[in-house]
Every structure is written in C-alpha cells, then in structure tokens.
Write a structure and sequence with these properties.
Number of domains: 3
Largest sheet: 5 strands, mixed
CATH class of the largest domain: Alpha Beta
CATH superfamily of the largest domain: Reverse transcriptase/Diguanylate cyclase domain
Radius of gyration: 31 Å
C-alpha cells in the first residue's frame, strides 16, 4: 500500500549538504526512514507467538511503528510525552528492546522445557528397566527354590514352594502390568508435550504468504500427526472445513485485490477465534480454510462452529464500501476408525451439506 505525504518538519528542516562537508541531506533522511520502516516490517513478518502475545498482534504492532515512521501516524497506547506529530524515537527503541527481550526469554524457556522433556523420558526408561531387572531377580530366586524342591522327596515342601512361586510371579506380573500402563500414560504426556513444541517450531516456517496462517502442506502433516495421536492415546479432536460464500462473485466484482482483502480478513478472524498453540488454522486452498482443534469435545466443537460463523458475519471489508461476508462450515469430530483421508472426506461432505442447505451456516458430519 503506497502513501503520499508532505515531508515531516524534522525532515524539511534537515541540513542541506554542502560540497565536501559530508552532511546528511533531506533525501538521505527520507531513505533512512524508509529503510528503518522496512526493517520493522521484516521483524513483524517473521513474528511468532510469545508468552501471552500472538504473532498477528506482534505483526500489527510493528506495522503501526512502521507507519509512525513513514507518515508520523499515532502510536497506539503510547505514553510518550513527546510533542504530537513528531516521531517518538525513545518509545520506538523501548518497544523494540522490550520485544527482543521477550523473544529471548521465550526461546530460552522453550529450550529448557525441551531439555526437561527429553530427560524425563530418559529417566522413565531407566526406572522401568531397573524395576524389570528387580522383578526378574525375585522371580529367578523363587524358581531356583522351586528347582531345589523338585530335586527332593518332600511333596509338601514342593507344594508350598510351587504355590509361593506362582504367587510371587503373579504379583510381579500384576505390578509390571500396572507399571507399564502408568509408564505408557507418562510417556504419552511427555511425547505429546515434546511433539507440540516441535510442531510449534516447525510450523513457524510453513506459513501462507498472503494470509500469514499455515499452508496446505503444514495442514496435511498436522492432520496425520493428530490422527495418530488421537488413535493411540484416545484424545478427542475436531476438524473444520470452511469456505467463503459467493467468493467468485466478490472476486469478479472487486478484482483480485478485493478478493485478497476478503481472504485476509477471514484468515485474521480464524486466527483470533482459535488462538491456542495446540490447534492449527490453515489456508487449504483458494477461498477454503481448515481448522484442527485438539483436546476438544464434540459439544465444544459445535459451540466453536457457531461462534466462527457469527464472527465472520460481523466482518465488513471492501474497497467500495463495507462488504458483508459469510461462510459455510463442515464439522467432523474424530472417531477411532478415521484415517486422515476419511476424516477430511467427512468434514468436506459436511461442508457441501452446509452449502446445499443455503450457506451462512455449519453442518455436522455423520458417523463413518
């Protein structure tokens, strides 16, 4: 987006270079402002979620500061006492320094969490192996006593030893079964946490260039991982397929720039509606989006579908006056027999049902 503006006072009053003096002229000041604004936008374009601030909010903040440099636009929530209309250099330095500190703290914390998970897995494996060895020693001692009793002629002693051996080995096997079930639960929690951290790091590099949400390749892999984890650990999950209603008409009326504005507006709405790091919002293709919501019940999935449909109804966007938007949504809760392909097919079928029922609504997939 281009801007036309008068040169700010501090640029107009800048010293004019004289031959041989090496002074900075007005054109150098404007180039410096444009370069610094480009640097700020570059920081914003590669932003990622930190602490309680999500990536879209960070990108927006950097864009506000870039606009402030270029056209002296107001800075939201600024507490600076500097003269209105002048650039707030001190506040800008404080903003960038504060953000970099938050990023650094987040990365250090994430790495420490990653190490803790790895060491927790190693510790669990070591404890499991030690307990198995201990039970093996006890069972071996009982079997040795039973062999001694077998070599003798005392049938009562043999009976007692056999009964005791069966009891000890049975108790050991029961304890081992309980321990293995507990270990599986602990391993599942550790692997799930580790997987989420790795997915978050990897997904940062798989963003759609227009919407800055995740792309189709990232979605395909995320669905595969979610299917595997849900089937193994019995975790609930819900899949949404979302389509912008009458998008071709919008594109024909307003052209590709207008269509892109609609796509970005819907993507922003999706990102705000589903802010959890464990979930995924992706551009599936064209005007179609997909959302994977983990650890969410069937009832909550319905509530979120209704919330999203209502949120999109509130969007107004368009170069020739506000354009009302609506979506059609297909909802499919994960079932144990689902493969990634069947889960997606069920959600897609529900999406077309919503369209057939009149659009601007959501529909739910039936049982496979």
């Amino acid at each position: 987006m281009g801007f036309s503006f008068r040169k700010p006072k501090e640029v107009r009053d800048a010293p004019v270079a004289r031959p041989g003096e090496g002074a900075i002229g007005p054109e150098d000041g404007e180039a410096a402002l444009e370069s610094l604004a480009a640097v700020l936008r570059s920081f914003g374009s590669t932003a990622f979620d930190i602490a309680d601030t999500d990536a879209p909010s960070i990108r927006q903040a950097f864009e506000h500061w870039a606009q402030h440099l270029l056209v002296a636009a107001p800075v939201p929530e600024s507490k600076s006492q500097e003269e209105p209309g002048r650039r707030q250099w001190r506040a800008l330095r404080q903003f960038v320094a504060s953000h970099r500190k938050q990023e650094s703290a987040f990365v250090v914390r994430a790495l420490n969490d990653f190490r803790e998970v790895i060491w927790a897995v190693i510790g669990n494996v070591n404890r499991a192996a030690a307990q198995d060895r201990q039970h093996g020693v006890v069972a071996g001692e009982q079997l040795s006593r039973l062999r001694v009793a077998l070599d003798g002629n005392d049938t009562e002693a043999l009976k007692r030893q056999a009964t005791e051996t069966v009891s000890v080995i049975g108790t050991a096997l029961e304890a081992q079964g309980r321990r293995q079930a507990q270990q599986l639960a602990e391993f599942g929690a550790s692997i799930q946490k580790l997987g989420q951290q790795l997915e978050t790091a990897k997904r940062e590099g798989t963003l759609d260039p227009l919407t800055r949400i995740h792309n189709r390749a990232c979605f395909d892999e995320f669905v595969q991982r979610t299917t595997e984890a849900s089937a193994l650990f019995g975790q609930s999950a819900v899949l949404f397929m979302v389509d912008v209603d009458h998008f071709k008409t919008i594109n024909d009326k307003f052209g590709h720039p207008g269509g892109d504005a609609v796509i970005k507006a819907v993507a922003d709405c999706l990102a705000r509606t589903f802010p959890r790091r464990g979930d995924l919002v992706a551009r599936y293709g064209g005007d179609e989006f997909a959302v994977v919501i983990r650890d969410t019940s069937h009832a909550d999935g319905r509530m979120l579908a209704e919330r999203l449909v209502n949120a999109v109804r509130a969007i107004r966007v368009g170069p020739e006056g506000p354009q009302r938007l609506t979506i059609s949504l297909g909802l499919a809760p994960f079932v144990a027999t689902d493969s990634p392909e069947s889960w997606l097919a069920r959600a897609d079928k529900a999406l077309y049902q919503a369209k057939a029922d009149g659009r601007d609504r959501w529909a739910e997939a039936g049982s496979p």
